[in-house]
Amino acid sequence: MAKGWTGGQVEPGMGTFTFGVGPSKVIRNGELAETVRGVVISGSILETLRTVDAIGKDLKIITSAFGACGKGGQRASCGLGGPHVRVRKMTVGGR
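^ thats the sequence. predicted structure below, dont judge the formating
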């Protein structure tokens, strides 16, 4: 269970993602366990979505006219958010 994010990227042509996330809780045997920090998650977008087995009821979307993603002089307005989700399998590493 993660709180916040610290940036990342998506490679649409390859279908992959990499994101830094805020302090996160390990779920062990169905219970929240220790907090880990400096977590990076990555993987195949579609494979990760296939392993979602729980979705929270805490949907929250944040948008702003000033929020944007882009590179190489290109810019696209964007927002962030969604409910907490639980996945059965994901690559997790430390920074």
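The helical segments are 45-50.
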